Amino acid sequence: MKQKTVLHNLLLSLGAILCSLLIAAGVMLLVGYDPLEAYSALIEGAFGSKNAFANTLSKSIPLLFTGLAVAFANKGGIFNIGGEGQLYAGAMASTVTALMMQGAPRFLVIFCSFCAGMLAGACVGAIIGAAKIKLQVNEVVVAIMLNYIIQYFTSYIVTYPLKQEGAMTAQTVDIGANYMLTKLIPKTQLTTALLVAVAAAILLFFFFKKTRAGYHIRAVGENKSAAQAAGIPMMTTAILTMGISGALAGLAGTTEVFGKMGRFIDGFSPGFGFTGIAVAVLANNHPMGILLSALLFGILEAGSMKMSYSAGISTSMVNVIQGLVILFVATPNIIRLIKRKKGES
């Protein structure tokens, strides 16, 4: 039964991708573009060379972390729309830690910085979980407000007290090349952050399958009333759920700093936290599925520039494709929900 469900979800996702590509192709034809030329350019931009493929994988990394963050929270029945704020908190905390530890051994700096980034993201996530259970405040409202608070706070820090002297943009000083993550392919932005992200997906898969805490989180997510009646502590589970979810989002920001930028730059995220929601939805919150889902979004992102200057099609078409994918994946669930509501009434 479970294998049939997994297969059904996989076919649903593949169908959603195919339908979105076909509709996007129709839109291109209507406005006078050649969809075959566009998709050929997109594929070439994503896979056309070793460096292109490395760029695709590199763009998938933050989406892997934020997708896992959203999926983890969803497993516990909480919608984490606060990934953007959590990744900014993680990026700033890890940067400050690295700057304070200048001169220390490389491994120690990276380890402490990653811990700081995860802790910062976890603290933000835990606030959302505690507010939901203790104060009965909707997590979406709290998460959105925290997104603004954290982004503006980090913007203030990098614009004033920690701004690099003489820099035209709001950014900190460089953390140092010695503390950057090791590149998997020279002269690209693909680093060992990819291995960390894949390891995180595998660990989460086994966490939900094999651990008591994972069972508690799934139980609360599937039936809150039954879980409460069974004696599962709601407050502890909610804080743990959102704490781990926030830590994963914090890693997205940390790996951007240590894998690509080498410093904190104001407004560095193009919306990784929100795209992570789409990644999780397409993968149906399955940790292993998120690996493929994040790769798909990485392909679209990496290939969009090539599609733009080779086929003359705006990169916004990629956003159209992403939106259509989510629409087709979400529609069956919406229909089932409407039918269930009608049945109850």
From TrEMBL:
GO MF, any single term: transmembrane transporter activity
Regions that span the bilayer: 12-33, 107-128, 140-158, 190-208, 229-252, 264-283, 290-308, 320-338
Protein localization: Cell membrane
Cellular component GO terms, alphabetical: plasma membrane
Bilayer topology annotation: Multi-pass membrane protein
The keyword Membrane appears for this protein: yes
InterPro entries: ABC_transp_permease
Keywords from the named record: Cell membrane, Membrane, Transmembrane, Transmembrane helix
Pfam families documented for this protein: BPD_transp_2
Record has Membrane as a keyword: yes
Protein name: ABC transporter permease
